[in-house]
Amino acid sequence: MERLPKIALPVVIGLVVLIILIAKSAVTIGPGEGGVIFKRFGDGIDTSQTYGEGFHIVAPWNDMIIKKVRQQSISDKMNVLSVNGLEVNVNGTVWYEPEYSKLGLLIKTKGENYVQELLAPAVNAAARSVVGRYTPEQLYSSKRDVIEQEILDEVTKLLDQQYVNVKRVLVEDVQLPATIKQAIERKLKQEQESLEYEFRLVTAQKEAEKQRIEAQGKADANKILSASLTDKILQDKGIEATNKLAESPNSKVVVIGSGDSGMPIILGNQ
What we know:
Elements: H1 8-25, E1 26-29, E2 33-39, E3 44-45, E4 54-57, E5 62-68, E6 72-81, E7 87-98, H2 103-110, H3 114-131, H4 136-140, H5 144-158, E8 164-175, H6 178-228, H7 231-246, E9 255-258, E10 264-266
Antiparallel strand pairs: 1-4, 2-3, 2-5, 6-7, 7-8, 9-10
Helix pairs in contact: 3-5
């Protein structure tokens, strides 16, 4: 077997090294992700550019740091105090996304673990501030949507110029101590029953008023009718009815004289 030429070994070694360098330099950024370059022998994170989805070549002595840049969410359970000092457990979810063009600045100033080191503390602080303005009853019943908006406003202020945008805050559950919860539920039930009673009472009063008005209307109508029925009108009506009876083919009428009221007297008919 003939020996390989002396140049062959360096060529093979060079090819191996080249393949390793290409493999190390090739970076693929997935859907919904962004990347920033960390220059090992430069100034660290390159904040001038965020790399989008797809295939990229990076110098082998540099690193590509890849992070999700689409909308994401974190959920947390927090123990906070209400306005009267009662401990309340709040379960919430926050939707957020980093500013795509500022991803380098976000990582450089806040670190790669910015969710735990920046976002989560801000949400917790906002929740404590907002929940501390309300009573347990308000937290348990009708103030949920207002609380969500106030927490969102607080978080937005805390994260201003921090390169993270919070899109929405959802308060999923508010857990109170059992005794407080039962007391609130009893009070709400009593209020509901009171409202139902008042509704029935108002309805009955309206129905009674309606009947009174209808009865008064009928009485007024009868009074007007009675006042309008003079003897002359009654006599004319009687004559009109007698004429119609006389014109009927099924009747035979004999009229003799008149009654005390001046009306004709009908003696017989068939």
